[in-house]
Structures are given as structure tokens and as C-alpha cells.
Amino acid sequence: MKKLLNVLYVTTPESYLSLDGENIVVQAEGSEKFRIPIHNIESIVCFGYLGASPALMGFCAEKNVGLCFLSPYGKFLARVSGKAYGNVLLRKKQFQSSDDENECLIIAKNCISGKLINSRVVIERGIRDHALRVNVKALEKASAYLKNGIIKLQSCKNLDDIRGIEGDCAKTYFGVFDELIVQQKDVFFMHDRNKRPPTDNLNAMLSFLYTILAHDVQSALESVGLDPYVGFLHRDRPGRASLALDIMEELRAFLVDRLVLSLINRKQITEKGFNAKESGGVLMDSDTRKEVLTAWQKRKQEEITHPFLDEKINIGLLPYVQALLLARYLRGDLDAYPPFLWK
């Protein structure tokens, strides 16, 4: 099993990254602020605009260390990638399967089934943990709607039908998401799911961590030899990592939604860390981003028993395990792609 390494998050916008020997050096305001050996790092995520030296970018590509640049909002800007790894036969099979609608249907159904099942778990846990503080009837109704959506998925005949069910279920899920917030409800609320840019504190946190998750999934797909830009449910579009979006669907609720709810309900994050911009968007300040990323890293270190492998793994390895299982399915080693199902 792959070892879970560190991800270096650079949150100060004026930071510049360079290479010194085999060390990553972070500089700001004309002086060195931090350095770390690159062999301890799996990937680098930089929230800022000054960038990195060509030497560091080349070294990261050579060592297969992901280097990703995001805006302060968490919007993807650019990514440095090295040589494509993996068996060329695997990628050829991936491309063939992506052009086969029946094959796409099989994989897409499993990914979205996983998403809806895991979203139901978030709702059911909210009922279990806060039965006296939430609208149980509304949450039970939403859970039943998602359950029905899972059943309807199995009879879908085309990808548009799957997208329709997924969209309706997502609207229902986020329609009751506000019920799951039991603290700080005056400043953290879900009136609707909005993005580009997010216009409230809760959506700002969700969008930020969804972007981080997409980066992790893309890195995982590349590490097993799959092309993250060739998907099955999300179709080809220039610059969009469609396969990463496919796989992260089943991981959103477990990795992001539950963490965001915990941070709010435990008051680890407060409204002081958010700023409204003239554009209408809401942005987390540097300290709050660090707090969220620290919680994200801690979450990734926790262990679970993978439901398909029946092995203990770090939660942070879930994207890699799912990428590996998809590769095994495409190679013909598995009868079906097993999505991650939260128990």
C-alpha cells in the first residue's frame, strides 16, 4: 500500500517557492520563511500568485510531486505535471471505455450510487446525533428521496438520466443541509449551493475543500497511470479533470461535508475568519484557511477499514485506493468498479 506523505499548503499570497539542493524553500517579503526536504512531500498546493522557480517546477515534475496553484478563493489556476506514468495499455482501455456509453453507464452509476449512499449517511448521522435539535421529519424525507434516487439509478439508460437524478438528489440534499448546522446558525447557513464565487461562509468552506479534494483525486489517478482528464460521467472538456470529478463524487460527503459540519458545530471556525468582497464573494482569511487545512490533514491521518478491501488504511489514501480499484476494473481484474461506501 502506498505511504501517506505530507501535503505542503502555502497560504500566504506573497510567497515564492524555490529549490535549494533537494529542499523546498518558501520565501516571503525578501526572506526565507520555511524549508523542507522534497522527499517528505507528496504534493504542494499554493494559494497565491508569485509562483515558483522553474528549477522547482522541473524538480517536482521529475520527482512526481504535484504542484498546484489556486486563487485565494480556492479556484484552480494551474498545475505542474511530470511524465505520464503507468501502462499504456491501461490508458488505451480507459479511452476506449470512455467512448463506450454502456461502459460509461456502468461506472457512472456506481460513482453516483456511492455519492447518494454517503450523502444519506450524513443526513442519518445528523438525525442520530442531534434528534432534539433538528427537523427530523424534513431530514427523513430527504433521506428517503435519496434512497429512491439510488434505486432509480439502476434503471437509467443514458448518462443524461443519471445526471438528472444526481442533480435532483443534490438539490434535495443541500435543501436540508442547513438543518445539520446546530451551532452559529446566524452566520453559517445553507440557503442554496452557490459557487464561482461562493457568496456565504458555508459555501466558501465547501468550495475550498472540494477544490483540495479534486487536487488529491487527480494526483491519485495520475499515480496509478490513469488520465484524470478522460472521464465517464463528466465528459471531455479542455482543462477539466473529468475523471477526478467522477471519482470525487463518492468522496465529497465523507471527506468534506462531514468535516465542514464538525468544524462549524464544534465552533472551531467562526465568522471572524471570513471577509465579504465587493464582487459579492466570500473569502476565508489566511488564519482560517490554515485552521481548515490543519483539520483536513488531521482527518486524512485517521484510520478506517476500507469496505471493499477490508484493510485498515489512512483516510487520506482513499482517493488512491479508489483510483487503484478503477484501474483494476479497467484491466479486467475486477467484475465491477466498487465505489467507496461509508458505513
What is the CATH homology-level superfamily of the largest domain?
A: CRISPR-associated endonuclease Cas1, C-terminal domain
- Count of the separate structural domains: 2
Architecture per CATH nomenclature, i.e. the level-2 architecture of the largest domain: Up-down Bundle
For the record, give the distance between the C-alpha atoms at the N and C termini, rounded to a whole number.
22 Å
Q: How large, in whole angstroms, is the Cα Rg? A: 20 Å
What ranges have pLDDT less than 50 throughout 5 or more consecutive residues?
Answer: none
β-strand number: 11
Number of helices: 10
Strand order across the largest sheet: 1-5-6-7
Shape, per Cα inertia axes:
globular
Describe the structure.
The protein is 46% helix and 15% strand. The protein is α+β, with helices and mostly antiparallel strands and 343 residues long. The protein folds into two domains: 6-80, CRISPR-associated endonuclease Cas1, N-terminal domain (Ribosomal Protein L15, Chain: K, domain 2); 88-331, Four Helix Bundle (Hemerythrin (Met), subunit A) (Up-down Bundle). Helix 3 (101-129) runs parallel beside helix 8 and helix 6 packs across helix 10. It starts with 5 loop residues before the first strand and ends in a 12-residue tail after the last helix. The mean pLDDT is 88.
Characteristics:
11 strands; three-stranded antiparallel beta sheet; 343 residues; globular; alpha+beta; Ribosomal Protein L15, Chain: K, domain 2; Four Helix Bundle (Hemerythrin (Met), subunit A)
